[in-house]
């Protein structure tokens, strides 16, 4: 229990003293997960919407695959990205291994199916009568799609919240492809692992609290947007 | 001039035939009612007429143009038709944004406020612009739906049982607006319904749909003054009775409806008959009156239904009769549950099948 209290005090002092290393790690965490979520949204929303709005053979099979990918173990993703980016891998010459770009790539592989999967269910749960309404009022196919996405906006924000939550708390993939290099690829989760291994529990707990605060802040902003959207 | 013409229109869903051999010729400016029980194909027909679905067979012409064309051409035609569904759904947005939607998808960005305000005043929702549409009552939502369908000034308005889920007050409001749209704005209206009062009040022409087939078509007067057994069976027609008729005078029979209720009817038919009296043709009085009406029944008011400007009362006179009186008469006569009343109607007001 004392380690927790010590951790709390440590977290406060690190934040108040603007510890450059801690702030550097926080910013990198936000940057890597933020970009991965943005990529997830850019690719996942259109993919999910396309699947939800069209009828085609194999649709259920595709949704099952998507749902499986949503549960992809991060270490497996890390391993695959590592193999592709390592010097003997197909993208080895790009020398991306142990860079934030590699970490973003690994996290994006997880955020895209997450956003797409939640989008499928959000778009699918929009009242079917909305579709008839929009068409009967003269909407083109494109206008219909954007109307349905607008109706599903709360669900789409949920997709972003879920994707950010899983990205920012993920450790396996970023550890393998980022290497947890100080001042270069160290993020909050990998720093916590390191401090725990070193027996620096209060620092580990302090970083854990900071991670929670960071995650809470981002979710608070997104939830505010969701509330505003629900009143639209 | 015809606005809608269908030739042998049919629609199948898998193996199930929803509509078959529908031949309609609807004149511009007409108020056309499609009457039929649930599952008879009314909604399917309206969806075909709105070009939301494609027929499995047959042809539909809108304003003389064949609607079997490219999606682009069908969209252009659909944009000249408005529809109000039985169940209203609203976009999660303000009433203004909901009503402006059809204008925006047509690329109209000027004058939105004036057009939306004008149409909201038509449906009696002035001052509702900023309200969240999804929080409105059922009746208000249906009026917003009507505003959405009218704001782009369609040539044809389709109504799919627009008042089926509404209370009498909202029903009366919708009926009044729809009547105005047809009479003043000269918009052709096709309305699916099984509310007979509505058909008689509003429509000039009607068709009866039975299991996907048109069984009767013609003027409302022709169809409803002497309803077929089928029409009477599903249409929740009030004052429909079966009885035994025996002649009492030339062209006059006495029909025994049972329970000691006997009425005089101007007909030659005898034996088993079905009779029908329109609620509006019954004159209600609180004391016996001397008139030319051959029938006068005494009874007690057992049910009162507020229809806004009119009041529908149900009277137990041995048999249950439904009559409609104006609100003023209702109040002047101080009617209430349990009031004793006399029902007067002419022998010629009783329709026999």
Structural description of this entry:
The complex is a heterodimer of chains A (232) and B (353). The longest helix of chain A is centred in the first third of the chain and has 34 residues, at 20-53. Chain A is built from 11 helices and no strands. Chain A has a single domain (2-230), classed as MetI-like (MetI-like fold), CATH 1.10.3720.10. Chain A has helices at residues 2-16, 20-53, 59-70, 74-85, 100-124, 128-136, 141-151, 153-168, 172-178, 188-197, 201-230. Chain A is globular and about 65 Å long. Chain A has 232 residues and is an all-alpha fold. Chain B is an alpha+beta fold and 353 residues long. Chain B has helices spanning 42-49, 71-78, 95-105, 112-122, 138-150, 168-183, 196-202, 220-225, 229-234, 327-332, and strands at residues 2-13, 16-27, 31-35, 57-62, 65-66, 81-84, 156-160, 188-193, 205-210, 213-219, 240-249, 252-258, 261-265, 271-277, 283-285, 295-307, 310-316, 320-326, 340-345, 350-352. In chain B, strands 6-7-8-3-9-10 form a 6-stranded mixed β-sheet, sandwiched between helices. In chain B, strands 13-12-11-14-20 form a 5-stranded antiparallel β-sheet, with no helix packed on it. Chain B starts with a strand and ends with a strand. Chains A and B meet through α6 and α7 of A and α2, β6 and α3 of B.
Give a nutshell description of this structure.
The complex is a heterodimer of chains A (232) and B (353). Chain A is mainly α and 232 residues long. Chain A contains eleven helices and no strands.
């Amino acid at each position: 229990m004392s380690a927790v209290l010590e951790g709390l005090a440590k977290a406060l002092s690190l934040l108040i003293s603007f510890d450059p290393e801690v702030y550097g790690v926080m910013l990198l965490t936000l940057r890597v997960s933020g970009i991965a979520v943005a990529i997830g949204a850019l690719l996942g929303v259109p993919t999910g919407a396309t699947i939800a709005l069209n009828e085609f053979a194999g649709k259920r099979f595709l949704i099952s695959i998507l749902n499986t990918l949503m549960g992809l173990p991060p270490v497996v993703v890390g391993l695959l990205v590592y193999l592709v980016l390592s010097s003997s891998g197909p993208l080895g010459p790009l020398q991306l291994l142990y860079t934030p770009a590699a970490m973003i790539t690994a996290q994006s592989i997880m955020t895209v199916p997450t956003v797409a999967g939640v989008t499928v269910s959000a778009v699918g749960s929009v009242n079917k009568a909305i579709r008839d309404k929009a068409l009967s009022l003269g909407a083109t196919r494109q206008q219909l799609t954007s109307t349905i996405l607008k109706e599903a906006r709360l669900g789409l924000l949920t997709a972003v919240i879920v994707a950010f939550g899983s990205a920012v708390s993920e450790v396996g993939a970023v550890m393998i492809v980022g290497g947890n290099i100080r001042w270069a690829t160290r993020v909050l989760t990998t720093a916590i692992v390191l401090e725990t291994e070193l027996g620096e529990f209060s620092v580990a707990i302090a970083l854990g609290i900071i991670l929670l605060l960071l995650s809470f802040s981002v979710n608070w902003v997104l939830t505010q947007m969701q509330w505003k959207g629900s009143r639209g | 001039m015809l606005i809608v013409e269908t030739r042998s229109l049919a629609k199948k869903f898998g193996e199930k035939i929803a509509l078959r051999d529908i031949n309609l010729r609807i004149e511009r400016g007409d108020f056309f009612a499609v009457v039929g029980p649930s599952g008879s194909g009314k909604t399917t027909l309206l969806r075909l007429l709105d070009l939301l679905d494609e027929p499995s067979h047959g042809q539909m012409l809108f304003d003389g143009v064949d609607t079997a064309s490219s999606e682009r051409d069908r969209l252009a035609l659909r944009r000249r038709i408005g529809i109000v569904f039985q169940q209203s759904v609203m976009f999660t947005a303000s009433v203004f944004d909901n009503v402006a939607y059809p204008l925006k998808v047509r690329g109209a960005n000027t004058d939105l406020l004036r057009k939306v305000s004008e149409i909201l005043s038509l449906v009696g929702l002035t001052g509702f612009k900023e309200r969240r549409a999804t929080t409105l009552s059922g009746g208000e939502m249906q009026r917003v739906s009507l505003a959405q369908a009218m704001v782009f000034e369609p040539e044809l308005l389709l109504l799919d049982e627009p008042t089926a889920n509404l209370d009498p007050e909202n029903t009366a409001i919708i009926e009044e607006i729809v009547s105005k749209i047809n009479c003043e704005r000269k918009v052709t209206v096709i309305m699916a319904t099984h509310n007979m009062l509505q058909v008689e009040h509003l429509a000039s022409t009607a068709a009866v749909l039975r299991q996907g087939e048109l069984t009767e078509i013609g003027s409302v007067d022709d169809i409803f003054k002497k309803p077929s057994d089928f029409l009477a069976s599903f249409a929740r027609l009030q004052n429909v009775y079966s009885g035994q008729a025996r002649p009492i005078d030339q062209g006059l029979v006495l029909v025994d409806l049972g329970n000691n209720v006997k009425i005089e009817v101007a007909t030659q038919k005898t034996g088993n008959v079905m009779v029908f009296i329109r609620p509006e043709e019954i004159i209600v009085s609180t004391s016996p009156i001397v008139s030319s009406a051959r029938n006068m029944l005494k009874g007690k008011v057992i049910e009162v239904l507020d229809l806004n400007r009119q009041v529908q009362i149900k009277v137990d006179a041995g048999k249950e009769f439904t009559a409609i009186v104006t609100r003023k008469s209702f109040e002047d006569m101080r009617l209430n549950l349990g009031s004793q009343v006399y029902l007067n109607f002419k022998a010629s007001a009783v329709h026999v099948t």
